[in-house]
């Protein structure tokens, strides 16, 4: 697996991953009716942020976006989001993308990384982030409307560098 900077040629493989995750309404607080153009505007970030893909040959297995969590006085803390294709899950793609984002953020001089909205029932992601040194610093009860479970909490998770 190779993690590299996203190029526009990757979009034809990244969009179906985003679409699948967003339509499922289980892990991302994005509008389930999001269009490809709307998703592109949200997912592909300009510097100082970065968007990457994890590939196996010509196939995109997953993608990540990262950058400052907030502008101005909050810009010293980074954030990131990760998506993995359904048939590539359980193969370490999410872990590799998370580690890549952490390395990038440290090298860019950020003080830490914060995730603002980790769905508490997304055990795979929560466990991954805990393994990578994040802590749950708070949970907003019922802040995410899960397609099958109803309202569940959103964790705020943080790792200081």
Mean pLDDT: 97
Number of domains: 1
Number of helices: 4
- Outline: globular
Q: Using only CA atoms, what is the Rg? A: 15 Å
CATH level-3 fold name: Aminopeptidase
Q: In which range does the helix fraction lie?
A: 25-40%
Provide the CATH architecture.
3-Layer(aba) Sandwich
Straight-line N-to-C gap: 26 Å
Tell me the series of helices and strands, N- to C-terminal.
EHHEEEHEHEE
Largest sheet: 7 strands, mixed
% residues in beta strands? 35-45%
**Number of E-type strands:** 7
Q: Order the strands across the largest sheet as they lie in space.
A: 1-2-3-4-5-7-6
CATH C-level name: Alpha Beta
Unreliable segments (pLDDT under 50, ≥5 consecutive)?
none
Q: What's the assembly state of these chains?
A: single chain
């Amino acid at each position: 697996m190779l993690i590299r900077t996203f190029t526009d040629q990757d979009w034809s493989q990244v969009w179906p991953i985003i679409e699948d995750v967003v339509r499922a309404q289980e892990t991302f607080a994005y509008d389930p009716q999001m269009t490809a153009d709307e998703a592109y505007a949200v997912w592909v970030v300009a510097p100082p942020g970065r968007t990457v893909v994890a590939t196996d040959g010509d196939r995109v297995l997953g993608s990540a976006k990262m950058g400052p969590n907030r502008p101005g006085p909050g810009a010293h803390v980074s954030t990131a989001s990760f998506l993995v294709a359904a048939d590539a899950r359980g193969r370490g793609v999410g872990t590799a993308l998370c580690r890549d984002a952490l390395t990038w953020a440290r090298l860019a001089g950020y003080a830490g990384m914060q995730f603002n909205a980790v769905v508490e029932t997304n055990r795979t992601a929560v466990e991954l982030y805990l393994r990578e040194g994040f802590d749950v610093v708070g949970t907003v009860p019922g802040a995410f409307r899960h397609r099958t479970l109803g309202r569940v909490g959103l964790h705020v998770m943080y790792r200081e560098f």
